[in-house]
Known about the structure:
Elements: H1 4-19, H2 27-34, H3 38-49, H4 53-71, H5 76-82, H6 88-99, H7 103-112, H8 119-128, H9 133-136
Helix pairs in contact: 1-2, 1-4, 2-3
Amino acid sequence: MITPDLLRRMCHARSRLQFELEPPASVAKLAREAGLSTSHFITQFNALFGETPLQCRTRARLQRASEWLLASDEPATQIGLALGFDNVGSFSRLFTRHFGMPPRVYRRTAKRFVAPLGCVALMNEAHASDLNFSEVAPGRVVQDGGSAPPHH
Length: 152
């Protein structure tokens, strides 16, 4: 049985696996901090979150890589190395397995399909900024650098 305290420690460990890049926390260290042996930590982590600690870290890095690919013109190889992948080949293989296409193709394909902000997103932004809808919508810039058409 997982106690609330152990659940809190496991959630903290998952957060560190997802967000710490340099230096990345070792699974053994996270297990000690959670008060578990390494093997028990891995078993409990997998039971709670449906993936091993290594899978969690890799998935988080791949997600960060996909965001970075769309937000910059940085070479995919540099992105992979900056996110802690050991070599370009392993990064490209893992990225392709996860997203169904290599990083360069993902960047080219995904940028073409970035949609303009929808009405609900614009209304939320207007509300958060204390503006009316018409002050937010016209000429709205979208992620790929294009302009969203005004919403009426």
